[in-house]
Every structure is written in C-alpha cells, then in structure tokens.
Amino acid sequence: MPQNNSDAPRRPWRPKFGMGSMLMVMFVFSYMAACGYYFMQYQRGEQKSQLAFLLFTLASPMLLMVIVSVAVAIKRSIGNKKKR
C-alpha cells in the first residue's frame, strides 16, 4: 500500500539562496546607502557631493549593466568551452 505524503514528518522551511544572491543584495543595499549619503551631503550645500551624487545615481546603473553583461558573456563562453 503506498504511503501518503501527509504521514511523513514535515521538514522546516529552508531558504534557497546562495552566496551570489546574498552578495548581490548586499551590493544593492550598499549602493542605495551611498546614494543616500551623497544626496544628504548635497542637501547640506556641499558642491563636491553634487558631482558624486549625480555619478552614483545616473552613471553607475549603466556601468553596472555593462559589467554584469560582460560577466554573463564570459561565463557563457567558459561554459561552452567546457562542453566541447
């Protein structure tokens, strides 16, 4: 007679994320904190912080997309070489 799954003891939920996803989340939050810091410095009237704030909020997302796309392309090319 087959056993029901309801008879088996239930395992507690375990999160399914690795070091890579934790690193990505920490990077995003640290990036947001840096943007907030430079924004607050700009609000206080420091002109040097205006350039840093603009670079962080406008240029960095594009740079991040380029870095991620290059990393993915390198990972794919390494993966294709291993299959051969």
Key words describing this protein structure:
mainly alpha, 84 residues
Provide the succession of SSEs.
Answer: HH
- First-to-last CA distance: 47 Å
Unreliably modeled segments: none
Number of distinct helices: 2
Look at the structure and give the mean pLDDT: 78
| Count of individual beta strands | 0
Q: Which term fits the overall shape?
A: flat
Integer-rounded radius of gyration: 23 Å
In total, the number of domains comes to: 1
The largest sheet, given as strand count, sense and whether it forms a barrel, is:
none
Beta content = under 5%
Bin the helical content.
over 70%
Q: Supply the helix-strand structural class.
A: mainly alpha
Characterise the protein shown here:
This protein is mainly α and 84 residues long. It has one domain (18-83). 74% of the residues lie in helices and 0% in strands. The longest helix is centred in the C-terminal third of the chain and has 37 residues, at 47-83. It is flat.
